[in-house]
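Supplementary Text 2. Reproducibility record for the structural model of the 279-residue chain.

All settings were left at their defaults, and a single model was retained for analysis rather than an ensemble. We include the record here because the model underlies the residue-level annotations in Supplementary Table 4.
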Amino acid sequence: MADRYLAIVNPAAGGGRCGKQAPEAVNSLRRAGLDIAVQETRAAGEATRIAREAYGKGVRHFIAVGGDGTGFEIVNGLFPEAIDAAEKPTLGFLPLGTGNSFLRDFSTEGAEFSRRALAQGRKRACDVIRLDHKEGTIFYINILSLGFVADVCTVANARFKRFGEAGYGLGVVLTVAGLACSPIPMRVDGGELDSAPLAFLSINNSRFTGGKMMMAPNADTADGYADIIRVGRLGRMSLLRTFPKVFAGSHLQHPAVQETRAKNIEFALPRAADAMIDG
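Retained model, structure tokens:
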């Protein structure tokens, strides 16, 4: 069983495109010699349950067939149990979702790159970030954002999901009207508490989010550090001029943007805050 892959398919990913393309994508891997079982999800959060149950039965090789959200759910089915495991689980991707941000750290060829890597048995280590909060623990391998970015994603997912990557741009325009820069009190690696007002904060394991937005251009998925992007106080027009630069990673040149790295981050939030987790 340890040598068998479990492909967890989210047929609703990519506006339903995943459900149509997944059978042939999986069969192409089978033709390449991989032994693959398949389970489909039917509701949000189900990939976490499927992965957790399979891991408990000895499965160690998984394939996320869908978008970044599918990978996120599988990661949360594998951890925390896999933290101290002698044999670490592997997670491959067949990116058939909307943004497929995480894979862009490795290739721009999308699903074709993934198929080749899986068929050839290629793999590399990847950090997993752990977030402890009042109601439990979350694990992720891409990025987490607070402030403006989280608000944009809330609007994009609620109102513009059908537009795919373009929906994020629409969310930016709509959200900037209500821009508020508020303190996000945090302590980095045991340092002093920083309560400076921020437009948004992003804690990154990988470089991309929202499809092609290079939020953390210097992030490394296997260096043992989280890349922290802090964007300080900005006016609406300044934010509208600066935010599009995220696609090239040149937003780091703005004086209000600060990039640091850390192994441990502690928050002292005065109240509950929305968070966006991409993968």
